[in-house]
Amino acid sequence: REKKHIQELSHQADRLKQLNEYLVHSDETERKMMASDLHDSVVQTLAMGISRTKNLMESDDPARPDQIRAIQAILEQAVREIRTLIYKLSPPILDDFDIDIAIGALIEEINAREKTAYRYINQVTDPIPLPHALKVTLYRAVNELLTNIRKHARTPNASIQLWFSDPDICLQVEDAGAGMDVQALKPSKDHGFGLYSLSERIQNFGGTLTITSTPGKGTKILLTAPVNQRGSNIHE
C-alpha cells in the first residue's frame, strides 16, 4: 500500500511539472503565494515522512508496523495536499469543458457551499477556443472576485456575466454591496494586492481590468482579453 502512495505522489508530481508553464508566466505575487503554499503543506509533510522513514530504517523497534502505518498516513496526507494544489493551479474541469461551462459550475458550487445567491448570465452562444492559461486566469478571477465580495461587500448577491465581443472575451462581476473609493485604492494585504495581481495577470494576455465603484453603491469589475493570443506574452 505504501508503494501505491509513492506511485501516486510521482504521478501528481508529473502533473505539477506540466503546469510549470503557467507558473512561469504568473506574476511575482502569485508565485510567492504558491511557493508559500508548497512550503507550508507538501514540503513539510514529505519532510516529516522522510524523517520517519529514516528513523524506521535505523530502528529495531518492535512497534515497526505502527510506525509504517504512521508513514502511510503521512504519504496519504501529502497526496491530498498535492491534489489540492493542482486543483488550485489548474482545475480539471478546464481540461474537459469550455470556460463558460466551467464558470457556471464554479458559481453553482460556491452558491451551494456559501449559501449565496450569485447569478450567472452566460451570453456565450458558441464555443470559444481559449489558451489554457487564459481559461485558468478567468476561472480563478471569478473565484477571487467572489471571495472579495464575501469578505468586503457584505452582500450575498452578485451577478457574473460572460460574453464575447470580437475580438475579446469579456467577464464582468458586479455587486450592490459596500463599494469602495477606487481613487484611494492602494495595495493592501486584504484587498488591493488581489486586484493589482489580477490586473497584471490579465494584462499578460493583452487584456484590461476596469473597476467602477462608489462607497455604498457597489462595485463593478470588468475583465477583457483578446481571444487570439498570438501577440500576447503567454504561450501555450
Automatic annotation (TrEMBL):
<protein>
    <recommendedName>
        <fullName>Oxygen sensor histidine kinase NreB</fullName>
        <ecNumber>2.7.13.3</ecNumber>
    </recommendedName>
</protein>
<keyword id="KW-0479">Metal-binding</keyword>
<dbReference type="InterPro" id="IPR011712">
    <property type="entry name" value="Sig_transdc_His_kin_sub3_dim/P"/>
</dbReference>
<dbReference type="GO" id="GO:0005524">
    <property type="term" value="F:ATP binding"/>
</dbReference>
<keyword id="KW-0067">ATP-binding</keyword>
<dbReference type="GO" id="GO:0051539">
    <property type="term" value="F:4 iron, 4 sulfur cluster binding"/>
</dbReference>
<feature type="domain" description="Histidine kinase">
    <location>
        <begin position="138"/>
        <end position="229"/>
    </location>
</feature>
<dbReference type="GO" id="GO:0046872">
    <property type="term" value="F:metal ion binding"/>
</dbReference>
<dbReference type="Pfam" id="PF02518">
    <property type="entry name" value="HATPase_c"/>
</dbReference>
<comment type="function">
    <text>Member of the two-component regulatory system NreB/NreC involved in the control of dissimilatory nitrate/nitrite reduction in response to oxygen. NreB functions as a direct oxygen sensor histidine kinase which is autophosphorylated, in the absence of oxygen, probably at the conserved histidine residue, and transfers its phosphate group probably to a conserved aspartate residue of NreC. NreB/NreC activates the expression of the nitrate (narGHJI) and nitrite (nir) reductase operons, as well as the putative nitrate transporter gene narT.</text>
</comment>
<keyword id="KW-0902">Two-component regulatory system</keyword>
<keyword id="KW-0597">Phosphoprotein</keyword>
<dbReference type="Pfam" id="PF07730">
    <property type="entry name" value="HisKA_3"/>
</dbReference>
<dbReference type="InterPro" id="IPR005467">
    <property type="entry name" value="His_kinase_dom"/>
</dbReference>
<keyword id="KW-0408">Iron</keyword>
<dbReference type="GO" id="GO:0046983">
    <property type="term" value="F:protein dimerization activity"/>
</dbReference>
<dbReference type="InterPro" id="IPR004358">
    <property type="entry name" value="Sig_transdc_His_kin-like_C"/>
</dbReference>
<keyword id="KW-0004">4Fe-4S</keyword>
<dbReference type="GO" id="GO:0005737">
    <property type="term" value="C:cytoplasm"/>
</dbReference>
<dbReference type="InterPro" id="IPR003594">
    <property type="entry name" value="HATPase_dom"/>
</dbReference>
<keyword id="KW-0411">Iron-sulfur</keyword>
<dbReference type="InterPro" id="IPR036890">
    <property type="entry name" value="HATPase_C_sf"/>
</dbReference>
<keyword id="KW-0808">Transferase</keyword>
<keyword id="KW-0418">Kinase</keyword>
<dbReference type="GO" id="GO:0000155">
    <property type="term" value="F:phosphorelay sensor kinase activity"/>
</dbReference>
<dbReference type="GO" id="GO:0016020">
    <property type="term" value="C:membrane"/>
</dbReference>
<keyword id="KW-0547">Nucleotide-binding</keyword>
<keyword id="KW-0963">Cytoplasm</keyword>
<dbReference type="InterPro" id="IPR050482">
    <property type="entry name" value="Sensor_HK_TwoCompSys"/>
</dbReference>
